[in-house]
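Example record

One chain of 146 residues, shown exactly as stored in the release files.
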Amino acid sequence: MSVKTYDPAQIVCTLGAIIVSGYQDGEFVKAGRDADTFTKYAGTDGEISRSRTRNKSGRVTFTLAQTSASNDALAALALLDELSGRGVVPLMIKDLSGTTRVAAGAAWVVKPPEAAFGKEIGPREWVIDTGPVEIFNGGSDLLGGI
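Predicted structure tokens for this chain:
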């Protein structure tokens, strides 16, 4: 019987030229599609059908510590997009010790996160929208356990 190992330091996230880092403790990146792949239809007689949804757009959320230098880089990208419309960049998320991959050719910052301050270092949630996004949610621990 082997022991599996997950290492959050092996998760690499890039948005354009930005290598995102300085995450808040806990869940730090979340990615998903905006729509289901199929929509189910049930007729009055109980016959089930489905229709394919071609919407492959998605949303990614990075949760950074307020002290992260990536806040500055993401804020600059958001400002560039707001001023010129040139803030659409590729996005890639990889688990280097596993097979999970998230990739989009076009991604952009939805809006700057709320600024909140407290007694301790708090989170900054950056929401990123994407055009078509490919998500392969695989396993971790490619290096193998004991």
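Notes: Residues 70-84 form the longest helix (15 residues).
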